[in-house]
Amino acid sequence: MPPLAQSLRGRSLGWVLLMAVCAACTRAAPAALPADEPYVRGVVQSVRTNALGSQILVLSGGGCGLHGNTHANTHYLRRLPGGGVEAVRLVDVKSQQQVSVWVTGPVTRSCPPIGRISALVIEPE
Q: Mean pLDDT across the stretch 3-14?
């Protein structure tokens, strides 16, 4: 192998190792609840995912609930028995779970209203 190729190969391996060490040492931001009150608290009726994204239908006992659209910045959390929260993923959101939902941006004036979900917390049963 020519000296230049050996030098580049060694540097590439060094960069890969450095990036792997940095990634392993980087801590994820701690999960935190939004500061304001949720838009709706209710029960998940359906979770649907298609090419355009995911839609979650949440019905509340005394109101219309929410037909929410998720996006890349939607935060999914689970409330822990001790009062804290942990980060979860969309696949952890299931039908019949009790949830609290925060929205961002405009919400339609319909029943159920349609809005963009900024955070969803799976509540303990």
A: 55
Q: Which two tokens stand for residue 65?
A: 């609930």
The domain containing residue 59 runs over which residues?
40-122
Global confidence as pTM: 0.74
Q: Quick one: tokens of 35?
A: 């500061």
Q: Please state, in angstroms and as integers, the Cα–Cα distance from residue 79 to each residue in 48, 102, 105, following that order.
A: 23, 14, 24
For residues 84-107, one letter each, b for 16 or more C-beta atoms within 10 angstroms of the residue's C-beta and e for the rest, the string is: ebeebeeeebeeebebbbbbeeeb
Tell me the CATH number at 104: 2.40.50
d(CA 110, CA 108): 6
